[in-house]
């Protein structure tokens, strides 16, 4: 991940700044040995705040715009176009300034009405609660209490429905309604008040409700007990397994140390947890981000967003990449006092200490690889200058109070920009145009996952990953033997990209020459695998690793291994392959019809059967892996733009 895009203010500023430095000045910079020294030097040369005219701005909110959107929402509502009304009410809510508290309460109430008609009762109830918190007018309170009662009726929560109908009768006393209209609403509420006690009594005599498995909480962190992390001089730290792993084994669930959304997805995904949002909760001050819940909004505004609010437009217009936003947020999610306390111990951290730390501890990620010794002076200069831009946002936002703190924090920003280059992951969402569309895995943001960052690369990875919100899930896509490395993939797969191109990409982006098996053996692309040749595993077992290359039209029952002398029953293997062909057709049909769990079981059965008799690379083997990955992605973030008509 690069630190900036070409179309922005920062690349032009960086180029002009660099050209203004004579050789002597730049040589001074080149001699500096620490990130803090580099930051102190560059930040002391010129004022980026003055030159780029940086300032905090809260754009996108205004009552004139909000009133116009509310009017459009009301028209759509009156025409019973509920989805259209919801869209306008969302935009109106996001546009309403913080100080217009009662107007915000009314728009939240209006939105709850649209949600009620869309049968999104929990979301409607949440909006009504927020409307009350924003001082909804007493004379209109009957609307909310009656709507809450109807929502609880639909949810079959009859006791709460009864409470709300009683509250409606009371609220009608404060209304400005004509007498006839008020009496009708009162009669309707009284009818329900008389009926509901009987319903509640009958419900109590019935069976107790069972817990809904769909609401079971997914753990924030899980690590397969067989996984451990080895370290060698050549490989660095990497994942290894102490026991055999089967396909579809969940190895890791992990929340990010830090994550940030791309600008394009900042208004339809929660900026804190990355869940797609159809009914957003707004930031009180800016219109740049949305939240999925009060909990996410509170966490964000108590930490990083209080400093980023009003500055996101600077980052986005500068051309800064997502890694820059994450480098900034690694700082803003903790206080300056927190980092100053950590300063004495950062350099001496050991792996044993790091492994015991929680994911949100900065020390957990500080020692991740930066390849600092391989960086050029120009690279250091660009990252240091970007750090001055990020630090300017911090300073203008009230973060850091003295030069010593600012220089230390600036040095950490430079460090963050380096480690994120090699350790951050793209967070994705499967997006479809229509339900029948195959879908495209789309980059929506970035995240830094401390445990996942320790997995090394292979062009034939043993795992795949997908995301639920910003939580990553890592699952196996093949059998992995005990004591083997467990590798993920950093981009190029051997089935799609030739070895020379893969190695060049990895060397350029990650500073290593890949030595995985497909690279060492120069495995063919998927399209170049010969379907008329089968690669059988020798029956010699662990004493022989020879591969028997057999024509698909072979007539022999037994084939002798040229290395160990053992005979392998080819007919038994061919019978197994016929079985897998039926499994593949069944799995593919189930996958296409949306029965992903059942399809996944079929793919796993097929993979295990093939692993007993075949040695990759082999077309059917990799087709099965592709099916496994495809099913697993369906358990992660996904979105269909056009819903099928009933």
List the helices and strands and how they pair.
Elements: H1 9-20, H2 23-30, H3 35-43, H4 48-51, H5 63-78, H6 82-95, H7 101-117, H8 121-133, H9 141-154, H10 158-171, H11 179-205, E1 222-223, E2 227-232, E3 236-241, E4 250-254, E5 258-261, E6 281-282, E7 290-291, H12 294-302, H13 304-308, H14 312-318, H15 322-332, H16 336-342, H17 351-355, H18 363-366, H19 377-396, H20 403-423, E8 424-432, E9 440-448, E10 463-468, E11 471-476, H21 499-510, H22 517-521, E12 533-537, E13 547-551, E14 558-560, E15 567-569, H23 570-592, H24 596-613, H25 619-633, E16 638-640
Helix pairs in contact: 3-19, 3-20, 5-6, 6-7, 7-8, 7-9, 8-9, 9-10, 10-11, 15-19, 15-20, 19-20, 23-24, 23-25, 24-25
Query: How many individual helices?
Result: 25
Count of β-strands: 16
Overall average residue pLDDT: 92
Low-pLDDT segments:
none
Adjacency order of strands in the biggest sheet = 1-4-11-10
Q: What is the CATH H-level superfamily of the domain at 63-202?
A: Tetratricopeptide repeat domain
The CATH architecture assignment of the domain at 63-202 turns out to be Alpha Horseshoe
Principal-axes geometry comes out as: flat
How much strand?
5-15%
At the fold tier of CATH, the topology name of the domain at 63-202 is Serine Threonine Protein Phosphatase 5, Tetratricopeptide repeat
How much helicity do the residues have? 40-55%
Structural class: alpha+beta
Distance from N terminus to C terminus (CA atoms, Å) equals: 43 Å
Nearest-angstrom radius of gyration?
A: 30 Å
CATH class of the domain at 63-202: Mainly Alpha
Largest sheet: 4 strands, antiparallel
């Amino acid at each position: 991940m690069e630190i900036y895009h070409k179309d922005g203010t920062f690349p032009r500023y960086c180029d002009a700044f660099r050209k203004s430095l004579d050789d002597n000045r730049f040589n001074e910079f080149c001699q500096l040995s620490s990130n803090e020294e580099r930051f102190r030097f560059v930040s002391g040369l010129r004022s980026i705040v003055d030159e780029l005219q940086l300032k905090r701005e809260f754009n996108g909110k205004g009552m004139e715009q909000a009133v116009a959107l509310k009017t459009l929402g009301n028209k759509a509502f009156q025409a019973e176009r509920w989805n259209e009304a919801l869209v306008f009410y969302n935009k109106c809510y996001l546009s309403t300034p913080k100080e217009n508290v009662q107007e915000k309460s009314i728009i939240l109430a209006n939105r709850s009405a649209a949600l009620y008609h869309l049968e999104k009762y929990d979301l409607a109830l949440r909006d009504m609660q927020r409307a009350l918190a924003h001082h909804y007018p007493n004379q209109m309170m009957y609307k909310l209490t009656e709507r809450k009662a109807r929502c609880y009726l639909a949810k079959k929560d009859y006791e709460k429905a009864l409470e709300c109908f009683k509250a409606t009768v009371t609220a009608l006393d404060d209304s400005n309604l004509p007498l006839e209209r008020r009496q009708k609403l009162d009669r309707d509420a009284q009818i329900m008040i008389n009926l509901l006690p009987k319903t509640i009594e009958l419900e109590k005599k019935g069976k107790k409700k069972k817990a809904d498995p769909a609401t079971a909480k997914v753990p924030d962190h899980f690590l397969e007990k067989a996984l451990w992390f080895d370290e060698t001089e050549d490989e660095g730290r990497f994942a290894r397994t102490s026991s055999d792993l089967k396909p579809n084994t969940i190895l890791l669930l992990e929340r990010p140390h830090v994550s940030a959304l791309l600008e394009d997805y900042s208004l339809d995904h929660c900026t804190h947890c990355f869940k797609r949002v159809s009914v957003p909760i707004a930031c009180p001050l800016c219109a740049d981000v949305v939240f999925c819940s009060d909990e996410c909004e509170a966490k964000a505004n108590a930490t990083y967003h209080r400093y980023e609010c009003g500055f996101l437009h600077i980052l986005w217009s500068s051309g800064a990449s997502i890694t820059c936003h994450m480098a900034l947020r690694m700082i803003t999610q903790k206080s300056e006092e927190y980092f100053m306390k950590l300063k004495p111990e950062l350099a001496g951290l050991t792996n044993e200490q790091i492994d015991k730390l929680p994911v949100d501890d900065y020390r957990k990620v500080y020692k991740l690889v930066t390849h600092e010794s391989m960086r050029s002076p120009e690279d250091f200069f660009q990252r240091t200058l970007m750090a001055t831009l990020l630090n300017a946002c911090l300073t203008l936002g009230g973060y850091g109070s003295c030069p010593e703190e600012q220089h230390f924090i600036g040095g950490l920003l430079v460090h963050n920009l380096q480690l994120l280059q090699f350790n951050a992951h793209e967070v994705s969402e499967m997006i479809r145009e229509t339900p029948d569309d195959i879908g495209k895995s789309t980059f929506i943001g970035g995240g830094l996952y401390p445990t996942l960052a320790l997995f090394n690369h292979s062009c034939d990875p043993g795992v795949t990953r997908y995301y639920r919100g910003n939580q990553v899930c890592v699952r196996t896509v093949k059998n992995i033997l005990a004591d083997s490395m467990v590798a993920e993939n950093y981009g190029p797969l051997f089935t799609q990209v030739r070895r020379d191109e893969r190695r060049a990409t990895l060397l350029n982006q990650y500073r290593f020459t890949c030595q995985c098996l497909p690279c060492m053996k120069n495995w063919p692309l998927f399209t170049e695998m010969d379907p008329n040749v089968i690669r059988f595993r020798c029956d010699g077992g662990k004493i022989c690793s020879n591969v028997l290359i057999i024509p698909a039209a072979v007539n022999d029952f037994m084939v002798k291994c040229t290395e160990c002398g053992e005979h392998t029953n080819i007919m038994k293997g061919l019978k197994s392959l016929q079985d897998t062909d039926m499994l593949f057709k069944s799995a593919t049909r189930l996958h296409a019809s949306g029965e992903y769990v059942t399809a996944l079981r079929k793919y796993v059965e097929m993979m295990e059967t093939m692993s007993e008799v075949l040695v990759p690379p082999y077309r059917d083997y990799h087709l099965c892996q592709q099916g496994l990955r495809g099913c697993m992605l369906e358990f992660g973030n996904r979105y269909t733009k056009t819903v099928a008509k009933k």
